[in-house]
């Protein structure tokens, strides 16, 4: 039995980046031998075990064969006869197909270290084209390592284009696709993710609504530079699309509710916010009501942030004005109206009237 550290932990150590999760590969062992040493099996599709003390994942060396469509269309074979090289060749990129043994020696049969040094994202073998999810994964790695100068190899981009043209991307589940999209959006250069998908034809297959959305990439880049939240980044990417297109994307990938809501609101009201100073107090109040700034102030703040990211150099004085308007409306007390005995519609009308007067005073100040 031989145990190797594999994948991202090896890659990031060589890059001098922090290593968070460690994956372990076990060569020459059986399921029974692993269990006899106290490892707990957790893999449903292939043998993966949890270390009895550290809880880290240990996978038996395995090979795989394409047996159906999509990300899950594979048959796995794990046995003591599977070699380290046979396991590593099934991985996506050469920089992810390196291993370290217990003595710290590097095992690099597919020259991942050279590609790391040359800043190239290159597939390991032609089997890359069998897994459509790898198109999104490579685009995500491109977004992550863009600040270090990494680019996708031409031959890998060609395989990604082949996958896009095959229709296999349509077999990906919404959950798996969104997981990659979400992780990519939170990288330091998320616009690169979209650019890579566009360059290989995958964007037109997955998100055709964004096929010509170059302007939104600048806003997405700004959002990442300002370390904005996932909902803000998703809203920046979708800004400028028609409401029907935004809703279609939200539904296609089963996007989390907070991301869905903000994207729809930004799509509907961003232009209104851009003209904030021209809004009459009644229209300003209606805008604040739409966002429920009294109970959900964070959502309005994220809306303003998304508008700021689309402005040149993120210079958006309208944001200060809108925040001030929200504060003026929120400052109106309900207690005094309740003490007067107002309830129901009468209370709602009186509260709206007071908030309108507060906004009139704010606008004229």
Describe the structure.
- The termini are far apart.
- The longest helix is centred in the last third of the chain and has 21 residues, at 344-364.
- The model has no long low-confidence stretch (mean pLDDT 91).
- It is elongated, with a radius of gyration of 26 Å.
- With 365 residues, it is of the alpha+beta class.
- The protein has helices at residues 8-15, 31-36, 84-88, 112-118, 133-145, 154-166, 174-185, 190-199, 202-206, 214-225, 230-238, 243-252, 257-274, 281-291, 297-309, 317-330, 335-339, 344-364; strands spanning 2-6, 23-27, 40-41, 48-50, 57-60, 62-66, 74-78, 99-100, 106-107, 120-121, 151-152.
Count of DSSP E strands? 11
Portion of residues in beta strands equals 5-15%
Report the radius of gyration as a whole number of Å.
26 Å
Spatially, the strands of the biggest sheet line up as 3-4-5-2-1-8-9
Q: Looking at the structure, what is the overall shape? A: elongated
How many alpha or pi helices? 18
Helix % is: 40-55%
Biggest sheet layout: 7 strands, mixed
Spatial gap, N to C terminus? 77 Å
Give, in order, the helices and strands: EHEHEEEEEHEEHEHEHHHHHHHHHHHHH
Overall mean pLDDT stands at 91
Q: Give the class from helix and strand content and strand pairing.
A: alpha+beta
Low-confidence stretches: none
Based on the model shown, name its key terms.
365 residues; seven-stranded mixed β-sheet; elongated; ATP-binding; RNA repair; RNA-binding
């Amino acid at each position: 039995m031989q145990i190797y550290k594999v994948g991202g932990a090896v890659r990031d150590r060589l890059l001098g980046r922090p290593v968070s999760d460690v994956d372990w590969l076990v060569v020459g062992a059986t399921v029974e031998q692993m269990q006899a040493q106290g490892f707990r099996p957790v893999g449903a599709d292939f043998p993966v075990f949890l270390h009895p003390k550290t809880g880290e994942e240990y996978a038996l060396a395995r090979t795989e064969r394409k047996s159906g469509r999509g990300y899950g269309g594979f048959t796995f074979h794990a046995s003591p006869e599977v070699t380290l090289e046979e396991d590593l060749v099934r991985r996506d990129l050469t920089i992810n197909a390196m291993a370290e043994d217990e003595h710290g020696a590097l095992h690099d049969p597919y020259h991942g270290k050279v590609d790391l040094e040359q800043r190239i994202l290159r597939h390991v073998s032609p089997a890359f084209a069998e897994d459509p999810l790898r198109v999104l994964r490579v685009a995500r790695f491109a977004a992550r390592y863009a600040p270090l100068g990494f680019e996708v190899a031409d031959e890998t981009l060609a395989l990604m284009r082949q996958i896009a043209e095959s229709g296999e991307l349509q077999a990906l589940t919404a959950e798996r696709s969104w997981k990659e999209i979400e992780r990519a959006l939170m990288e330091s250069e998320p616009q690169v993710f979209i650019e890579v998908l566009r360059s290989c034809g995958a964007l037109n297959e997955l998100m055709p609504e964004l096929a010509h959305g170059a302007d939104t990439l600048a806003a997405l880049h700004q959002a990442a530079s300002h370390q904005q939240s996932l909902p803000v980044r998703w809203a920046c990417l979708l800004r400028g699309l028609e409401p029907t297109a935004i809703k279609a994307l939200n539904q296609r990938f089963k996007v989390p509710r907070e991301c869905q809501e903000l994207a729809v609101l930004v799509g509907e009201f961003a232009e209104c916010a851009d003209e904030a100073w021209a809004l009459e107090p009644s229209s300003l109040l209606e805008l604040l009501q739409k966002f429920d700034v009294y109970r959900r102030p964070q959502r309005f703040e994220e809306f303003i942030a998304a508008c700021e990211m689309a402005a040149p150099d993120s210079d958006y004085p309208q944001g200060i004005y809108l925040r001030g308007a929200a504060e003026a409306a929120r400052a109106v007390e309900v207690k005094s109206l309740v003490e007067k005995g107002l309830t129901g519609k009468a209370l709602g009308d009186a509260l709206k009237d007071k908030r309108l007067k507060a906004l009139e005073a704010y606008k004229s100040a």
